[in-house]
Design brief:
The protein is of the alpha/beta class and about 475 residues long. It is built from 15 helices and 19 strands. The protein starts with 15 loop residues before the first strand and ends with a strand.
Length: about 475
């Protein structure tokens, strides 16, 4: 994944990327004896090139019922997040369609992967067969569309660095969408009373994108905290001391234990993202826990498993998408319009993704010291890197394709205002609109009050690709 550099290890499963192609036995007698071997080696090289985006494997050539059946079984067993089809030659689509039928929700990227820059004078019938793979891509693209899939098509020569980078971007978006289709979203605690805007019905989520809500019962959570080994809590504490300025003491120790417990729950349930409502029984109001979860959710997000607070499952999905696209995902709110600075104040209650922070600009402090609230445990304050950024939102929308909508709002993190607030707070300036109008258009798009702040350029385009692969609605604030 082309992630931002993170000071902590990414413990999320790497993306799985399958590379394959079709083959036309009818034409093989016309080709050189080693042509098939060269094309298989070429698929291996493409898989090697995609290794920076995750674990990539070549699944070979679908050329008849036997090979397509074998590939279908192998894909179903491996469970890829994205599939790349590069054309070895003109290829009948039926065998590829049968191979892909075993993984019907997995996004597909079609790459022209052209071999020639231009037509040479000696371009004859054999060269024509070698270089007409685009015909096969049109065939498979047509059949995928008939099956309700929307492949992303990337043009370019296979050995052109710019085309390879375009393919990597497309695969990154496809793999992010693929992760959502089988995402397990942990739910530790119901939303705050009246916060219906942060939840999504399990059936709507499962039918719309395939993701699953995974409730964790309160007794299990309490026991997980009680059973945390001292070594696990110490490992969290040592990792955080290496990347943040820490106010040592019992608040920090207890928060590290809570973070280790949440990491254990995520591992036990194979969670991709989740929410912990630490305001009520799963946190501050429970005498067996009795602390804020801000540092715990920040720890999970910083190791690649994004977590929200307040029982917010919709923003957990937005954060998962943003983390897979950019390597950063900060749980935040759009609080107010700064008319004088043409910006929007983004802030939260003490959560951060340490992959987004400036070096030496992360502070772990007792919650009561900075929030003014009678809270046990620690929060994480931080200053994020300035520059291009996109805010993502996710929400049920019965009028949208798939009953869901992904929303993107592009702009830049401008600065951290020098004010009395001592939680993560930054000024965001929209790219294409004055801040007041951008704020209004964000609400009109249907976003809820929480969002995912993701650092880096071009993320709105990538988010549109994610929505296309998922078959859900997309709106860009512009």
């Amino acid at each position: 994944m082309n992630a931002a550099h993170s000071p902590l290890p990414d413990k999320a499963r790497p993306a799985r990327i399958a590379v394959l192609s079709g083959w036309m036995l009818y034409y093989e007698p016309h080709m050189a004896p080693d042509f098939r071997a060269r094309r298989l080696a070429w698929l291996d090289r493409i898989a090697g090139m995609l290794g920076a985006e995750g674990e990539a494997r070549s699944f070979g050539l679908a050329m008849d019922d036997a090979t397509s059946g074998a590939i279908a079984e192998a894909l179903a067993a491996w469970k890829p997040d994205a599939i790349v089809i590069a054309p070895a030659m003109p290829m009948p689509p039926a065998y590829l369609v049968r191979a892909l039928a075993s993984v019907p929700r997995v996004p597909v990227v079609l790459w022209t992967a052209s071999q020639l820059e231009t037509l040479p004078p000696d371009y004859g019938s054999v060269a024509h067969l070698e270089n007409s793979g685009g015909v096969g891509l049109a065939m498979i693209g047509n059949m995928l569309g008939r099956a309700g899939r929307s492949p992303r098509v990337v043009p370019g020569r296979w050995d052109d660095p710019a085309a390879q980078e375009a393919l990597c971007r497309a695969v990154r978006a496809a793999a992010a969408a693929g992760r959502v289709t089988r995402a397990r979203v942990g739910v530790l605690g119901a939303p705050l009373d009246g916060y219906d805007n942060v939840s999504v019905p399990p059936g709507v989520l499962a039918d719309g994108v395939g993701a699953e809500l995974v409730p964790v019962a309160l007794p299990e959570w309490e026991q997980a905290l009680a059973d945390v080994p001292d070594s696990a809590a110490a490992a969290v504490a040592d990792s955080l001391r290496a990347v943040a300025e820490v106010s040592e003491g019992p608040h920090f120790d207890r928060s590290c234990r809570l973070a280790a417990a949440l990491e254990g729950i995520a591992a036990r349930h194979h969670l991709d993202c989740g929410t912990l409502n630490s305001h009520l029984d799963f946190g501050n109001r429970n005498p067996r826990i009795g602390m804020t979860g801000s540092l715990a959710t920040s720890w999970l997000t910083s190791i690649g498993i994004p977590f929200t607070d307040t029982g917010d499952t919709v923003t957990a999905i937005a954060m998962l998408i943003g983390r897979r696209l950019s390597g950063t995902s900060v749980y935040t709110e759009l609080n107010m319009i700064d008319y004088g600075a043409d910006g929007i104040l983004l802030a939260n209650t003490g959560e951060a993704d340490l992959a987004a922070t400036l070096p030496g600009a992360a502070w772990i402090v007792p919650a009561g010291d900075l929030t003014g609230k009678a809270l046990a445990g620690c929060i994480l304050d931080a200053e994020f890197r300035p520059g291009a950024a996109t805010i993502l939102g996710f929400t049920p929308r019965p009028d949208a394709p798939g009953g869901l909508r992904l929303i993107a709002f592009s702009g830049a993190v401008v600065d951290r205002p020098d004010i009395a607030l001592r939680v993560p707070h930054h000024r965001f300036r929209p790219d294409r609109l004055p801040a007041p109008e951008g704020f209004a258009r964000w609400i009109e798009a249907g976003a809820t009050h929480h969002a995912a702040l993701c650092l880096g350029p071009g993320l709105a385009t990538a988010a549109a690709d994610v929505a296309r692969h998922l078959g859900i609605g997309f709106e860009e604030v512009a």
